[in-house]
Amino acid sequence: MKVNFLRAPHGIAEFTADGLRLLGVLSVLVAAIWSTGTDAGILALGLPALMVPRMMGMRAWADIVVCATVLVAAGSNVLDLYRTVVGWDIVVHLVCTGVLAATSYLVLARCGVVPAQDSAAFRKRTAIVISTVVGLAVSALWEMIEWAGRTFVTAEIFVTYEDTIGDMAAGGLGALIAGVVLAYVTLERPDAH
Length: 193
Known about the structure:
This protein is mainly α. The protein has 2 domains: 1-79; 86-188, no CATH class. The chain has helices at residues 2-6, 11-34, 37-45, 47-56, 60-78, 81-84, 88-110, 124-152, 161-184. Helix 2 (11-34) runs parallel beside helix 5 (60-78).
């Protein structure tokens, strides 16, 4: 993972992915200086998700999808799009949870918990099931973070029962779709291991 992270980018797509990572770091700094601590904290929550694709050696297009999705998800919170754009919350939960579930599958494979996509032991159904389960777990964890943020940090964080259930359902569906993608599309570069 260290070799992948330190590897120089090759081609415009890899430079684009690194540019998105840099944008994520800069957005935290900008929010910390010119906005609120809550906004900076929300943006900072996305930083690990921006770095993992690089460490895993994901293909450039997949890396861009992960980074762009995470930036949109975090930025939407700061810009209050979840409350002002009808249905935006569901769309972002569906896409972001799917992206995080697929990325998590790659991390689990690297740790030897599940078979890697290029392994003879890899089964399409395993990718679909594991991705869906991980996505539902990520959805639940995210909703707990939202609840804790509203309860202990600021009442500005929007949390209702219906919102929570809808977000988790959308996240589960996104993770299922990501599992199907994992079953048929290799997300890591061939030289990533």
